[in-house]
Amino acid sequence: MKNRLGYQPGGSLFHRLHPLLKGAWLLFLTAAVFLIQSPTVNLVLVFGLLLIFPAIGIHLRDLRGLKLLFGTAVLITVLQFFFWAEGSLVLEVGKIRITDAGLLRGFYLGARFMVVVLVSYLFVVTTSPNQLAYALMRAGLPYRYGFAFVTALRMIPIFEEEALTVYRAQQVRGVTYRPRSLKDLWGKLSGFILPMLVSAMSKVDALSISMEGRCFGKYRARTYFKIRAKYRGDLWAGLILILSMAVVILLKIWEV
Fold first, then answer.
1. I need a labelling partner for 252 at 20 to 30 A (CA). Which of 34, 142, 207, 237 fits?
2. Which residue range is the domain that position 47 belongs to?
3. Closest CA to 250 of 38, 35, 30
């Protein structure tokens, strides 16, 4: 589905991994790119992540915000080229001096930004919100908070569609969102937010009645309709994660 940033069902290795294990990988890679300040390592991670998406059946062009991601990464890289003055001079054009240290730092920061965003994308598109919430609840999170988490995630696309409907309806009625003053801006925002607020309150009211009818919160523990089957890939992914963490720790010790 084009321009979508959300869970996309599939049967790949990444889809079948335990949600908490994928969360651990997300935290580890995010921390690793900050601890290992190597442009080479970060660029390898970027290309590896870019290859993973097609391998699991997800086209990069279908991910929302990808052009903004690449544009921001390029901007971060170029700014370091021009404004990082340390290191040996590589190129000088007028007052602009580009150094080898500036080139390395630019590639490092640009690649680091892309790694953090791409690994977050990978987590989002391969992890079902329901499975993540159930995994957290089975790990000890009170099911009330888990239900609130799942409900919030399910409501996001609904409110997004309703916001678009309200916007189009107001455009048909001649409303323009080009305010001439702060007072005019407040009036237009109020006219947009009010129907959204009414819709949200009606949904909350219906949901609360439904929860009361099903005795939500009566029991301290809850049962699960679906129990996740054991997957051998979790063991291998966990072992690789432990080894990778050990390697990063050893590299940081050797640097000291």
1. 237
2. 13-127+228-255
3. 35
